[in-house]
Amino acid sequence: MLNQKLKKRSVHRAKIIRGQLDGLIRAIEKEIYCPELLAQSLSIQRSLKSLDAFLLENHLRTHVRRQMGRKNEEEKAIKELVRVYTLSNK
Q1: What is the domain partition of the chain in residue ranges?
Q2: pTM higher than the cut 0.85
Q3: Most buried among 7, 28, 32, 54, by the most CB within 10 A?
Q4: How many CB atoms lie within 10 A of CB 2?
């Protein structure tokens, strides 16, 4: 279950990212100067990292907290976090 405050922040951040991406598409179509396109792309990447942080925080506060309190789910929580960490470093 999503923490409702984090859910609201995550949805808001995702909508901002969608707007940024739409803006980047329009800029590419208009053939805006490449360094400006790259700046917009990098801004979107930073926004995605911010969204990732909200989603990870929710996971830690809800699912991981619950899993670590149950002996039979500890290993699952650890494997999930290692998988997320590995993906974030690719």
Answers
A1: 4-88
A2: no
A3: 54
A4: 16
Q: What is the pLDDT along the chain (90 residues), one digit of tens a residue?
A: 678 888 898 999 999 999 999 999 999 999 999 999 999 999 999 999 999 998 998 889 888 988 988 888 999 999 999 999 899 888
Which residue, chain included where needed, has tokens 């990212």? Answer: 17
- DSSP codes of every residue in the chain: ---HHHHHHHHHHHHHHHHHHHHHHHHHHTT--HHHHHHHHHHHHHHHHHHHHHHHHHHIIIIIHHHHTSGGGHHHHHHHHHHHHHHHT-
